[in-house]
Amino acid sequence: MGTDILSFIIFLPAFVAFVLMISTTKVEDVRNIAFITTIIILVLVLKTYLGYEPNSEMQFVTNVPWILNYGINYYIGVDGFSLTILMMIAILIPTSYLLLWDGRTKGYWINMLMVQTGVTGALLSLDIILFYFFWEVMLLPVFLMIGNFGTGNKIFTTIKVTVYTMFGSLMMFVAILYLGVAHFEEFGTWSFQYSDLTQITIFSYQEKFWLFLGFLTAFAIKIPLFPFHTWIMDTYKNAPTGAVFLLSSIMAKLGIYAVVRFMIPLFPDIYIQFSSWFVFIGLFGLIYFGIAALMQDDIKRMFAYSSASHLSFIAAGIFSLNEYGIIGALYLVIAHAIATGALFLLIGVLYDQTGIKTIKDLGGIAKQAPIFTFIFAIMLFANIGLPGTNGFVAELLIIFGVFEFNQVMGYIAAITVLVSASFMLWMFQRAILQKKEGPALKMRDLKVKEILGLAPWVILVFLMGVYPEPFIDKFEPSVAHYLTDILKLGAAK
Amino acid sequence: MTSLLGYATVSMILFSIGAIGVISRRNIFVIYMSIELMLNAINLFLVTFARYHLNMDGHVISMIVVAIAAAEAAIFLSVIILLFRSKGKLDTDIFTELKQEVE
Amino acid sequence: MHTPYLVLIILAPLLGALLNGGLYLYHIKRKAIPEIIFALIGTITPFIAFIFTLLLFFELKDTGTTFHQTLFTWLNINGLNIEMKFLGDKLAIFMAMFVTFVGWLIHIYAVGYMKKDEGFGKFFAYFNLFLASMLILVLADNPIIMFIGWEGVGVCSYLLISFYYTESQNVMAGNKAFIVNRVGDLGFILGVVTLFFALGKTGLDFTSMQENIGVATTGTLALAGVLLFIGAMGKSAQVPLYVWLPDAMAGPTPISALIHAATMVTAGVYMVARFHFLYTGIEEIGLFIAYIGAISALFAAIIATRQTDIKKILAYSTMSQLGYMFIAVGLGFYSSGLFHVFTHAFFKAMLFMGAGAVILALHHEQNIFKMAKHRVYQPIVKATFLIGVIAIAGIPPFSGFFSKDAILAAAFQKEEFLLYGIGIFTAFLTAFYMFRLYFIVFVAPNGHDVHYASTDKTISFPLLVLAIGAIFAGFLNFPAVFAGEHQVDTWLAQLQSATLTLSHSTEYILMAASVAVAALGILVAYIKYAKFNLEVPETEEGIIGNKFYIDELYHLLFVKSLKKISTFFDKVVDEKIVDGMVMTVSREFVDFGKKLAFLQNGNVRFYALYMLIGMSCAFLYLYTTLIGQ
After folding, report:
1. CB neighbourhood size of A182 (10 A)
2. Backbone angles phi, psi at C455, to 5 degrees
């Protein structure tokens, strides 16, 4: 089982989804089986996590030819980066099920399972065509979820987000094919393994630049980076809670991951050359989205902007070219997934109970639902980056990282301290704390299973905030090794 | 034989007339007649070259074409009757069910 | 010297907080728990912390070696090595001593004050958490851990100010406090980061920074110094980041006493003292700090003369006294500044608690003129309040005199006569407005008989203890002028504070001047207010009464404009421009498709035409390529 564990982790949800799809069982059974599947995945991932050694190599690798003629292999494996994100996903998904428990239909759960397969597969792929395959697989269930279970202008929204994302994917695909052909021309064999593709040397500067842009389009749309972000406004507002959670907590992170895994190693010189631009875009996004979030009245839209703000900050960290920034970015990936994911799920519960989405109609939740408020407040402060939570460690490291990269930008980066605090606290005051008569009174407090679902997240927030070293240890060697490689490659080219 | 050019020219002219007739006329019968005209023009063309090259190939193909024309006539005329029954007119411009409605 | 006890000082209140928090959740969800349980947990844990601090104090006194305690490595990446480590040197223990002691007393007071409040358990959970955070701040070994405590007290301040959260005023005050604090924190973090890189990444704990300080250039150090001080500005409510402090009075009085008088606001002063090795090299920055302190002191004192809410008067008074502390530390007289922190903690906490007692007795009335009209007589409260007012005015032999006078003498010695002038004038104002407060609330005749009221023991006990401190604490730093041993200065010798070297005669004259000025202030207040006509109360009008319109200015400059920018970003840039581009692209495609759709008009003849054209082109192509053969 040893090295096949990853394949199992990837395909189990899809397999279960197919089985459930063709058997006409009741919603509760579908949901329960799906939930158990995610728990099994969690156990397997945990096993992998504990069995991983913190060095800088790929582990648990499987490399099997798939489409022989074009050198496309089924090549998967983990290293420090992907393992950490994998662990995060494995923990987040089962607990999210607990918060989405009631009132969904069979299709909802099947789509959730399929997304898990897509995301895990994309995360673990080391062959670029395989990665692209899973990247697309990831999109389709979300398309279905938003279109079927969303609110408001759902059809338009789902088509917009899917087409927009696919446009980016198309650019990336063209670049991928170009790379494959180049590899063939240079080495005489077809291969799409990224370790091989990084060896290509025959590109002119022009070609590299355009290829880089091709990849970048796909990821910039997903993350999102300004100005490719406008899909999030409608999507987050109209999508069902589960889809929003998946998009924000998990799939956006895949964009970041893909930048790190594929885009940067393939074009290290372009990366180094344009890193100032990207740090700038990241910081710009941080501030711009943070300010735009202030006057939002729809809660989910406000969180969409908040999410985009943090993700831009993560991107700034990645592009800062040093260990502090990259480790900080990865840490923020996890911290953000937990905090924002929890907030979205809690808002989902709020919406289910009261039917309200706008801040001005909410209020008085704190009195009705103290435990809800308590957990909401914790996640809110984690989002703001309060010391003692993992958000702080992450933001601190990114500030250090950007500062080392460029002192002025470092000063701008520190503004993150203010950004989230302003709109979050104001929202908290109006939506949760203030007294108000009206539909908010229908709110019930969290049920036991919801509390149990969120408990691991709360624990993680504080554990990662108070004792970050063991978490960072797992992936620091990978990052250090990665960075030296990139800088070496970049200098050589 | 210089009249080869003449026969070919006549054949081409007849073909052109037939083609233009198919495109520009609205009455189905006229379209049908134009199609027949095109077929016959090609027959003429084939026979001319067969005669020129003293070869039987042209004649053989010509016979096949005639046979096909006959079969086509049968089907075409049945379809015309069905079309007439469905719409009551023989104007091809009114048969536009496959058109996409533009909102 | 390694010791396992430092962390216990922090853990005790932290555990108290967790326990009370958990019990409170149980209390509201399942079964009610009697108040006494929360009260016991809430007051015993600070006491335990105090005991531990006391033990360490005595050991430190005897052996003189600093305590260290490393718990674990917090973060270690490429030279950035931060450990969860605590430092128990004389400065830290000094701070911890009065923080735990005064904190403990205020916790006892809170038991009486918050009686019957439905959030009783929650209050003590937050209160204990605050104390734990403050102790983390004070005992930290490096600025990052200190920042954890720094923000921790900020969050607790937010939670406690917004304690009565159903009223939006209170939550807005809490938000304001948190956000203005955060502006300061921005400076603090930048200062730390600048310092780290300026010192060549050699380590962030205070001891190694002190050793390596020579590595950095003066310019960078000055920058770091200013940035760090911005953090202090926010935390200690100095100009221009002070606007949160008066609003913070929306919280229950015990927190005003603890957080906004004795502990959190002094964190800024402590921080400057902690970074003394940085500030001694950059005298211009120190002078800047001193001036900010002076301006804040004066500004606050002026505003306080026209305020009518008792707690707001005390809040501005705190800001003013904090200004004095910064004058001292800015000029390099670190121990004098800290000594004022120490004495101020005693009398200010007592003043707030006394004010709280009166507020409670008068059913939460806070306007001093209305309080005067319905006055009830509580002898202990009145007496301790008088002691507090005398102390803050700087009348010997109460403690305020010694600490304030040392600061004024420092300014004089450094020949910063402007600072001295501001300080002396503010002292006059301080005496004036504090006695105004006293006379109105406790003395001015209101035409009624005297109503007596009893005072809860939980309220009177802390007041009495603190009164002793307010009276006698001055003797702990008895100046050499009176042949004293100035123990506090000696204790804090590590800070290498500047020392007073004025001649004794100069000092006597200065002291006389301070006393005279204070006496003058009291006299003016007496004349004006001791027999005040309560039927015509003062109102908050005019420029001074409206606090120089600073709050309104800030609101306009920052809040309103930010909201406008936000709406601009959202509605104009995002929706119209960026998304506009995206939608235009899609619309163009759709339109193009519609145009092409015209070709598919369902008409057979057109299709025949297309076929003809297509075939002709194909044949033409074939012909031209074949012709070559």
Report:
1. 17
2. -115, 135
Q: Under an 8 A CB cutoff, do B98 and C594 touch?
A: no
CATH of the domain at B56: 1.10.287.3510
> On the CB side of C310, how many CA atoms lie within 13 Å of its CA?
31
With b meaning 16 or more CB within 10 Å and e meaning fewer, what string describes B47-59?
bbbbeeeeeeebe
Neighbours of chain A (3+ CB pairs under 8 A): C
Q: Which of A365, A254, A351, A364 is nearest to A303 (CA)?
A: A351
Average pLDDT of chain C to the nearest whole number: 85
Of B23, B97, B100, the CB nearest to C605: B23
Half-sphere exposure of A270 (CA within 13 A, CB side): 20
Domain segments of chain C: what residues? Answer: 282-540, 555-628
The interface predicted TM-score (ipTM) is 0.87
Tell me the pLDDT tens digit for each residue of A24-48: 778 888 888 888 888 898 888 888 8
CB contact C616 to B (< 8 Å): no
CA nearest C113: which of C8, C215, C255?
C255
Tokens of A68: 């022989």
The structural domain count of chain B equals 1
Quick one: pLDDT band at residue C136, thresholds 50, 70, 90? very high
Task: Of A260-264, A294-298, C134-138, C600-604, give the range with the top mean pLDDT.
Answer: C134-138
Write out chain B residues lying below 8 Å of C603, CB-based.
92-93, 95-96, 99
Q: E strand or H helix at C68, and its extent?
A: strand C67-77
Q: How far is A79 from chain C (nearest CA, A)?
A: 19
Taking only residues 37 to 96 of chain B, the set having a beta carbon closer than 8 angstroms to any beta carbon of chain C reads 92-93, 95-96
Q: A448 CB near a chain C CB, below 8 Å?
A: no
Note whether C521 and C429 are within 8 A (CB).
Answer: yes
10 Å CB burial of residue B103 (0-12, 13-18, 19+) is exposed
User: How far apart are alpha carbons B41 and B10 in whole angstroms?
Assistant: 8
pTM: 0.85
A367-to-C19, C139, C326, C516 alpha-carbon distances in Å: 21, 37, 42, 55
Please state the φ and ψ torsions of residue A66, each to the nearest 5 degrees: -120, -65
CB atoms within 10 A of CB B72: 14
Q: What confidence score (pLDDT) does residue B1 get?
A: 55
Distances (CA, A) of C360 to C250, C353, C365, C442: 14, 10, 8, 15
Chain C residues near residue A163 by CB distance under 8 angstroms: 586
User: Which structure tokens are listed for C572?
Assistant: 């104009």
Mark whether A and B touch (3+ CB pairs within 8 Å).
no
Please count the CA atoms within 13 angstroms of the CA of A318 that sit on its side-chain side: 28
pLDDT in tens, A75-105: 888 887 888 889 889 988 888 888 888 778 8
Q: What is the mean pLDDT of residues B74-93?
A: 88
For residue A459, list chain C residues with Cβ-Cβ distance below 8 A. Answer: none
Taking an 8 Å cut-off on Cβ atoms, the answer to whether C144 and A421 are in contact is no
Residue B23 structural domain: 4-102
- pLDDT for A1 equals 46
Backbone angles phi, psi at C377, to 5 degrees: -95, 115
Q: What is the pLDDT of residues A384-443, one digit of tens each?
A: 888 888 889 999 999 988 988 888 888 888 888 888 888 888 888 887 777 766 666 677
Q: How far is C226 from chain A (nearest CA, A)?
A: 14
Nearest to C569 among A288, A434, A480 (CB): A288
Task: Name the least confident of A285-294, A300-309, C23-32.
Answer: C23-32
Of C162, C179, C565, the CB nearest to A291: C565
Task: Using CB atoms, pick whichever of A292, A411, A415 lies closest to residue C570.
Answer: A292
